[in-house]
Amino acid sequence: MQIRNDKLSSRVDQVRAFNRFYTRHLGLLKPGLYESRFTLAEVRVLRELISEDEVTASQIGEALGMDAAFLSKILRRFERAGLIRRSQAEHDGRQKLLSITPRGRQEFAPLEVRAQEQVAALLHPMSITEQRQLVQAMSLVKSLIEWVESGADAAKEA
């Protein structure tokens, strides 16, 4: 999609500038997220595994919008490291269920603490009103993007 409208082009530049700012602020491009050995993608996969007792790789891929081959590499590394286990689904022997091991939970726990501390450090210097404004602005951004995504999905299906 080529952008021809100068006003739209300016807004595109502003969104991209914000994305670069926030990515840098969160340290998402550092080699190890939250001073760990894990990348952002790996932490997100661990988060999905923590939030469900058993889940399939395709469910994780769909939830994260992650390429199946990339996800498969991450899952193989996790399995070799003893962070996850695979088991056959009782209802469908072809389906493999993934679950996090106690070691995986142990490795994830400090990442969750660091993530909480990072957000708390961002909010701490702000007044309650400023914190609410920030959260409301983030909620609005999320809602607008979800609205666009749902409309784009409906248009694709039509």
Itemize the secondary structure elements and their pairings:
Elements: H1 6-26, H2 40-51, H3 57-64, H4 68-80, E1 84-88, E2 96-100, H5 102-123, H6 128-157
Antiparallel strand pairs: 1-2
Short structural summary:
The protein has helices at 6-26, 40-51, 57-64, 68-80, 102-123, 128-157, and strands at residues 84-88, 96-100.
Beginning-to-end CA distance, first to last residue: 21 Å
Helix-strand makeup class: mainly alpha
How many strand segments?
2
Low-confidence stretches: none
Quaternary form: single chain
**Cα-based radius of gyration, to the nearest Å:** 19 Å
Q: Assign the CATH superfamily.
A: Winged helix-like DNA-binding domain superfamily/Winged helix DNA-binding domain
Would you kindly provide a written description of the structure presented here, covering whatever features stand out?
This protein has helices at residues 6-26, 40-51, 57-64, 68-80, 102-123, 128-157; strands at 84-88, 96-100. The chain is mainly α and 158 residues long. It has a single domain, classed as Winged helix-like DNA-binding domain superfamily/Winged helix DNA-binding domain (Arc Repressor Mutant, subunit A). The chain has a two-stranded antiparallel sheet. Strand 1 and strand 2 (96-100) form a beta hairpin. Helix 3 (57-64) crosses helix 4. The mean pLDDT is 90.
